[in-house]
Structure formats: structure tokens, C-alpha cells
From TrEMBL:
Keywords, alphabetical: Electron transport, Iron, Iron-sulfur, Metal-binding, Nitrogen fixation, Transport
Similarity-based family: To ferredoxins from P.putida and C.tartarivorum, ferredoxin I from A.vinelandii, ferredoxin II from D.desulfuricans.
Function text: Could be a 3Fe-4S cluster-containing protein.
Classification via Pfam families: Fer4_ETF_QO
Keyword Transport appears in the UniProt entry: yes
InterPro entries named in the record: 4Fe4S_Fe-S-bd, 4Fe4S_Fe_S_CS, ETF-QO/FixX_C, Fd_FixX
GO MF, any single term: iron ion binding
Name this polypeptide is given: Ferredoxin-like protein
Residue intervals passing through the bilayer: none
SUPFAM superfamilies: 4Fe-4S ferredoxins (SSF54862)
Domain (4Fe-4S ferredoxin-type): residue spans on this chain: 59-88
Amino acid sequence: MEGDEIMSKNIEDKQYLVRFKAAKESHLTVMDHDVCMTKCPDKICTIFCPAEVYKWENIRMHVGYEGCHECGSCRIGCPHQNIKWEYPQGGHGVVFRLA
Ligand code: SF4
Ligand code: SF4
């Protein structure tokens, strides 16, 4: 059955069903890179983000917003409230398909 097929897909299969329509401007902003550098030794957004949007690059946080799944975790996960989070511009962002 179709539903069973969907349930039996592994995470890699499901990732293939995710599509993105990236906006020109990021809907995610790291407010202060110095906070990341000096107050967040574990850079935990690089760990908890399921889409690996955040990558620490020597002195600043690179934000690959184009691949964001819009799960909202970084709204609450940053211990310093250092991420400004908005929905992508209308008509842009992630598209989840079931098959
Ligand atoms: S969790 Fe917040 S403070 Fe820590 S590295 Fe990420 S954006 Fe910076
Ligand atoms: S909303 Fe979710 S997927 Fe997008 S950057 Fe934040 S933690 Fe990552």
C-alpha cells in the first residue's frame, strides 16, 4: 500500500523528497558573531540543526539558509537568543512531498 511504502522509506529516501525554492535573502540571521565566538564554545546550532544550515568558519557563522527545513529549532535552541528567525518570503522555502 502507498502509505506503507512511505512509512518504510529511510531518512535518506525521505531527504530526496525535500525540495527548496530559495529566496534571495536569508530568513535566518546570526545577530552577533562575537557571541558565537566567545560565549558558545560548542556552537550547538551546528549540532542540533537537522539540515546542517550552520557552519562555523573560523570567526563567523555561515548560514546556508537555502537548505533550511523550517523546523524552528534554532528559534529556541540558541542559548543566547542570537538567531533572528523569520519565515521565508512568500512562496519560498522548503517543500515537503509525500511521494
Ligand atoms: S547556538 Fe547561537 S550563540 Fe551558539 S554558535 Fe549558534 S548562533 Fe551562535
Ligand atoms: S529552522 Fe530548523 S532546519 Fe532551519 S536553520 Fe533552524 S534548526 Fe536548522
